[in-house]
Amino acid sequence: MRATLFIFIHLSGTHKSVKLKLVKPAPPNNSRSSAPDTNPEIPAAVLREGLNQALVESLRPVALGLGVICVVFTISHLIFLPLTIRWVMAMVAAITAAAMFATYGYLRSRSLLPRWAHPLAFLLSLLMLFNPALHMFLTKDSAQTTYFILLILGAGSIFLSFRWFTLLVVASLATWVLTYLTLPTVAGWLGNAYPLFSATALAAIL
């Protein structure tokens, strides 16, 4: 908006007028508001899809590795466990190994939908969880708590959904408590519970 100002100047007995135009200054340019947003927020659905896809790519080598581990368990059960339980534990470990190899073969030949990544990982984890739980129940050996710890730590490094991870942790801890209560004595429960819950906290951070 312009404004006009007349200034009268007295020079040598005459009067002259000078007309000045005052122009209102333009508002400052806000570079922040005009600059494009270089860090747009990623929609939750897109982020979740990306995390699920990342887990799909991790499941194949994980399934293969767990299958090999279960084969080792099968052989060690046949060699070291008492005769009364060796065949049961060897059969469970062999079935688990077969399931892991079948999962590996499926993921190698076909594409898994990302939304099924965490449900599949959860089911495979439950299958792995059954092995130390049955071992502890049959042998009455609290040292099997170590495998519960390894399972939870492994899940913490693989799972990319806090909801599915929490569900697995609840299932693992509940299974451990119920199985531990079947032992002849629970006097040393704190020595096993402390590293188990510490591993749970560490896995949640991972």
Strand numbers in spatial order across the main sheet: 1-2
- Tell me, briefly, the overall form: flat
Biggest sheet statistics: 2 strands, antiparallel
Q: Which residue ranges are poorly predicted, with pLDDT under 50 across at least 5 consecutive positions?
A: 1-24
Q: Whole-Å distance between the termini?
A: 61 Å
Query: Structural class of the secondary structure composition?
Result: mainly alpha
The Rg value, from CA coordinates, equals 34 Å
Total of DSSP H or I helical runs spanning 4+ residues: 7
Overall number of strands = 2
Average pLDDT, to the nearest integer? Answer: 85
- Amount of beta strand: 5-15%
Could you spell the SSE succession in H and E letters? EEHHHHHHH
* Helix content bin: 55-70%
Structure keywords:
206 residues; mainly alpha; two-stranded antiparallel sheet; flat; disordered N terminus
Question: What do these coordinates show?
Answer:
It is a single chain. The chain is mainly alpha-helical. It is built from seven helices and two strands. Strand 1 and strand 2 form a beta hairpin. Helix 2 (about 45-80) runs parallel beside helix 4 (about 115-140). The model is unreliable at about 1-25 (pLDDT under 50).
